[in-house]
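step=encode ok
step=design start
structure_in=
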């Protein structure tokens, strides 16, 4: 993958996001790129299909994350997309092109280990960034978005705090786990968190596809 290809294809911001910031940033860039094109909307914390194309690999990852009804809560979509092989394949492609080293990063970070070529490419892109919200996320993260409506759309819904428990009572461990953000996303992925439909962006089974992680 060379610099001209990375800056000119429709999937370039998502690949650049993985190179610059890792898998979670790639997921954010994917969501923003589809919001920009009106292929999805975010309505009351739910991602809604507005014209995703099954023939597009990353659109397909989103469609599978959304499920049969084409709508699911934002955090569950993030969780499911981040585990899709079609998204993982972006990192494998970066390894093949010599931009990312074929070894795991130290610690628990999902940031890739960039090669010298990868570091140079990121510096070049940041020095002269392409236009568009997806590129802002790819190179600077979600906080780099200049559009406040996009930033707001991508914020997870605030859940009410747990009610106070009488002294001596306790929630079982499974209940407490399910009420954490990670447990909520896992539970919603298993049982479906469809939510209401209708919103931001105007009218404009998880996994699948080939490829592997890195």
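sequence_out=
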């Amino acid at each position: 993958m060379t610099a001209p290809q990375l800056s000119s294809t429709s999937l370039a911001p998502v690949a650049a996001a993985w190179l610059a910031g890792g898998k979670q940033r790639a997921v954010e860039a994917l969501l923003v790129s589809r919001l920009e094109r009106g292929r999805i909307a975010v309505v009351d914390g739910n991602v809604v299909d507005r014209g995703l194309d099954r023939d597009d690999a990353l659109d397909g990852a989103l469609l599978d994350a959304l499920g049969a009804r084409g709508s699911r809560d934002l955090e569950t979509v993030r969780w499911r997309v981040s585990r899709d092989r079609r998204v993982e394949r972006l990192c494998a492609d970066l390894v093949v092109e010599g931009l990312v080293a074929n070894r795991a990063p130290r610690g628990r970070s999902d940031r890739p280990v960039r090669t010298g070529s990868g570091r140079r490419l990121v510096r070049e892109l940041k020095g002269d960034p392409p236009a568009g919200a997806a590129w802002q996320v790819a190179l600077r993260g979600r906080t780099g978005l200049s559009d406040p409506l996009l930033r707001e759309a991508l914020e997870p819904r605030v859940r009410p705090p747990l009610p106070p428990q009488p002294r001596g009572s306790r929630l079982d461990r499974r209940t407490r786990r399910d009420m954490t953000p990670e447990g909520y996303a896992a539970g919603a992925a298993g049982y479906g968190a469809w939510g209401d439909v209708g919103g931001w962006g105007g009218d404009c089974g998880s996994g699948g596809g080939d490829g592997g992680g890195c």
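step=design ok
step=annotate ok -> The CA atoms of residues 152 and 190 lie 27 Å apart.
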